[in-house]
Amino acid sequence: MGKWRYGVILDAGSSGTRVHIYRWLNSDTARTSASEAQLHSLPAIETDKKWTKKIHPGISSFGEHPHDVGREHLDKLLSHALKYVPLEEVPNTPLFLLATAGMRILPPVQRNSVLKEVCDFARKTTKFQLPDCDLHVQVIPGETEGLYGWIAANYLLGGFDSPKDHDHGKNHHTYGFLDMGGASAQIAFAPNVTEAEKHADDLTLLRLRSVDGLPLEHQVFVTTWLGFGVNQARERYVKALLEASPGAKEYPDPCIPSGAKIFVSANGKVIEGKKDKKAHQVVGTGDFKECLRRTYPLLEKEKECLDTPCLINGQHTPAIDFDVNHFVGVSEYYHTTHEIFKMAHKDDDDYDFKSYQTAVDKFCGQKWKNIVEGVDDNKFGKKIDEETALEVCFKSSWLINVLHDGIGVPRVGLEDLNSANNVTKAETGKSKKGYLNPFQAVNKINDVEVSWTLGKMVLYASSEIPTLSTEALAVGFGSNIAGIPDDFQYPGGKYTPYSSDDWHDHLFSENPRRIPGFFIFVIILFIFGFMLCGRERRKSARRGLSHIFRGGRGHRSSSLGRRRGFAGKIFGRRNTPTYERVLEEGEPSNGFELGSYSDASDNDHSDSSDGSRVGRTSGWGATGTSTPSLFDPGQDIIAQGANLGMSHAPPAGFTNSIERGGLMSRTDSRERLARSRASSPRRKSPMALFSE
């Protein structure tokens, strides 16, 4: 194993899948070069914008035809990963596909079929580590997604490594995490000491490990609100709008700009294109204050709270002490506050409720035709289109209601805050205020995207660090009890030694469907070799096969029997007489050579290196920067013998047959492509996340 360890995570969301690549120093190297502060820190994870790529749609769209998910979807993402993970490190690199909201709503049969195809395709076409498909390829619950996000936020802010620099008062030094997507919303935070003791059974125990092998433990509360993402909240809102005035010709909506018209179905979804008979017309009135009033009931705060206290939808949440709990919000929290409004036109401003509501009210009070003209003139930014402008008023009202009436975040700009005990030094970008306020919307911290996938990889890298004691408990998370609870989740599968000598022991063990393909491959090689070996050797081969199938009864059987032997039946030589021929000088008397195999066909999927740019998904790329070999065969890694190719490449003319046989020629071809990177632009060194 080399200096660097790599990890690949596929974030399979409802609208698309994004591949993330991370790397970190292996434990021995990290300990050798680390300062005293770095030894007591978590592993330093690096990434780069080029290492990220997203494609559409999500894997949940393959529920009715799961066999296409590999060829039509995963192939592009795995190809991108193989461009940046050094070839010799691929067998050492864990691969995860973790699906979220979109896959959660699929019927169980379809969901399981898609996940199985994902694992089979990845194992068949790459040598990435996939020791346990149930662990590496799965649909994660919203609570797990929220916990990973909490890890990522605190990792980037320094809440784990430098608690003295993040003293929020009352011996509290971590940050809360808020995430809102289209279907659900999550919250994760560490309650103060009093609340943690009172609600200990509701907390998740998280175990990490620093570079020096010492354990780090945190008690975190995590919950998810299904149906409280912006898209599903909007659908619930429209359904309520229709039910309030059944049979109306038009439905006035204060949450879209005045003059805008849309058509919706009975379940609240927008209908694009031509109006149909079942569509309902919604007309905007552009009254943001009324929009706030109409969206408030969607919080469902009137639901019975069976385990007090509760915040939204009757779901229990320990009381939040905003004197010490400072939250960062990602996804829609950031996009809704920054894409159009940019927080009073300064991207690095802290969230200020008064300024934000004033900006939203001004925008939503405009006529729709004026907003469209502003979009065309890039008045709100080049990335803003009409759909974004049409949706932002509802999203803003929903975000304000969730933040302040749902979660209880103080309204900065209107309400006084007690922060006398707060000595936080963390800063974001150019902001001089840092994270002193109860809420801050972020997209990146120190130029690194705050993504739950980073939290997952921090957990995994931490689990690889050797312990200082044989009695040390494993890294992972589970119920807040001593020891290893029954629901404890480990970050990854168990390592097993990898050796190129044991491929024959595993060739079919993980994927029995390869067996027919293997025998087809052998038959093709036999036929091709037989045709090349010359007339005299074909005759000798037929005699030998005929002798074998007759049970070795000598040479007295008739020529008819020889002509009807196994080889004769295959090659159609039933009526051809045999002749003796003297070999000419210089003619080889045995053996043959296979033609060279060309992998040029894989270049048809050449891919750009635009990283996470949406929609640019042309597949394989043959450019990049070559990486020196750092492979150490003595290191324990995953046995991926099932993914090793044959030692001799097939002839050029049989590429399609090989692929149909399910062999690993695609794998070898792709990973050979990773060697030819000399012509690509030089890679920028990713930013190290070690604290200086």
UniProtKB/TrEMBL annotation:
Gene Ontology biological-process annotations: CTP metabolic process; UDP catabolic process
Positions with a binding annotation for ATP: G182, A183, S184, A185, Q186
Active site: E145 (proton acceptor)
GO molecular function list: ATP binding; GDP phosphatase activity; ribonucleoside triphosphate phosphatase activity; UDP phosphatase activity
InterPro entries, per the entry: GDA1_CD39_NTPase
Alphabetical UniProt keywords: ATP-binding, Hydrolase, Membrane, Nucleotide-binding, Transmembrane, Transmembrane helix
Superkingdom per UniProt: Eukaryota
Membrane-crossing segments per the record: 515-533
A Gene Ontology term for the protein's cellular component: membrane
One family name in Pfam for this protein: GDA1_CD39
Spans annotated as Disordered: 588-692
Stated family: Belongs to the GDA1/CD39 NTPase family.
Protein name (Swiss-Prot/TrEMBL): Nucleoside diphosphatase
Phylogenetic classification of the source organism: Eukaryota, Fungi, Dikarya, Ascomycota, Pezizomycotina
